[in-house]
Amino acid sequence: MEVSHLVVRYRPNQRAEPRFGLAVGRKVGNAVARNRVKRAIREAVRQERGSLGGVDVVFIARPSAARAGSAGIHEGVSTALQLIRSRLTGHSCRAER
Prior knowledge:
With about 100 residues, this protein is of the alpha+beta class.
């Protein structure tokens, strides 16, 4: 799935807790920009993970993520996790933007 500045891949797993991975390539920017994006994604996941259950989630940052700022990245992570929750529970509701 694709949300604002991120591409998100997920798959249910057999664990009780969710696992998260990050991929931030060199196209995003220099090391400072890439680390800033990674910190923003980690913080957004920490705040939004809630009761996600057993799922593996990988966030892949697009080059536009470096210009999005923490608020834009947080919005993308929040939207993605809402969509994942609704798809895993079988609800067909759309995530609010």
